Amino acid sequence: MSRLLGALEMGGTKMVCATGRANGEIVERVRIDTADPTSTLEACGTWFAERGVEALGVGAFGPTDVDPASPHFGCMLKTPKPGWSNIDVLGSLHSAIDVPVGYDTDVNAACLGEAVYGCARGLRDVLYLTIGTGVGAGVLVEGKLLHGAMHPEAGHIPLTRDPADPMPSGESACPFHTNCLEGLVCGPSLWKRWGDPVAAGVADDPGKVALIGGYLGQALAAFVLCYMPRKIIIGGGVGDHLPLLPPARAKLADVLNGYLVIPEMDDLDSYIVGNSLDGDQGILGCLELARRALGEN
User: Fold this and answer.
1) Cβ burial 178-216 (10 Å sphere, 16+ → b, else e)
2) How far apart are CA 150 and CA 100, in angstroms?
3) What would the DSSP string read from start to end of 86-148?
4) CA 40 from centre of chain
């Protein structure tokens, strides 16, 4: 039987701990509520230690330091999550379990999960975009997760405001930018415009869906031009529950205006898709991080 691996998907409200195999089999999982960092990470580390995992993959909410060459690798950076800024996540986990650990962002882990086990299997250039409370991007380039000076913060690229947007000019759901992707499409932006999105019937209103999908299409045009992914996958609470893909594809085609002559542009329905792993893309990506931490090819 293949080695037992650990997967830790760290979220602002919950930690999902799981064990599994390199073939994508998930053996066991548990939810641990995110509280103070000391007790939360201690509980996670103990859970994995009791199960005897041979390696651990961690997909962390951010911002966090994912550069293995950095003295702060595995640490949280300044984060809005109270009490979690500058916390040494890797050090805390290692105090409970001394095994190889692969560490990256939660959205990079989700991207990796789709590339190894999901709808982007076998592709080496993939973009995963999650749209929920915020917007995050995981980018795989030539088979490697993109980091650079920091993990991509593609959710904050500037967009052109739609004149039909009912959110007043100068207002946004982002505290830093008035016209960034996150500020215009995230869950809180829907609340700012229409109140409860379910009660307002946003998903069934073509005009409202077209507004949000149009912003997404603008952003996708920039991502395609910069990253040239072979597949774009949209997930997250907003991405999963609003029918954004048709208007986003249409806006992408409009913005690019025939500029790119590549096969992907001929089949946008297959190029820009929803996630394919029933919410397990993050856990499966963490299992792959764990497998890679063992030095396996």
Assistant:
1) bbbbbbbbbbbbbebbbeebeeeebeeeeebbbbbbbbb
2) 22
3) T-BHHHHHHTT--S-EEEEEHHHHHHHHHHHHSTTTT-SSEEEEEESSSEEEEEEETTEE--T
4) 21
Residues 269 and 124 in one domain: yes
- Residue 79 · residue 61 · CB < 8 Å: yes
Question: Do 75 and 65 form a contact (C-beta atoms < 8 A)?
Answer: yes
Q: How far apart are the first and last CA of the chain?
A: 17
- 10 Cβ partners below 8 Å, 6+ apart? 34, 58, 59, 60, 61, 89, 106
**105 near 64, Cβ under 8 Å?**
yes
Give the SS3 label for residue 274.
strand
**pTM of this structure:** 0.94
Burial class (CB in 10 A: 0-12, 13-18, 19+), 220: buried
The DSSP call for residue 261 is: -
**What is the mean pLDDT of the segment spanning 96-104?**
95
Give pLDDT tens digits for 215-237.
999 999 999 999 999 999 999 99
> What domain range includes position 50?
5-107+279-293
Task: Evaluate whether residue 114 is within a structural domain.
Answer: no
Number of domains in the chain: 2
pLDDT at 67 over 70: yes
Q: Verify that 262 and 124 share a domain, yes or no.
A: yes
Q: Which amino acid is at 56?
A: L
Instruction: Compute φ and ψ for 268, nearest 5 degrees.
Output: -65, -25
Q: Could you give the CA distance from residue 13 to residue 36 in angstroms, rounded to a whole number?
A: 11
CATH number, domain containing residue 170: 3.30.420.40
Structural domain contains residue 16: yes
213 plus 181 within the same structural domain: yes
**Distance (Å) of CA 52 to CA 55, 165, 244:** 9, 53, 42
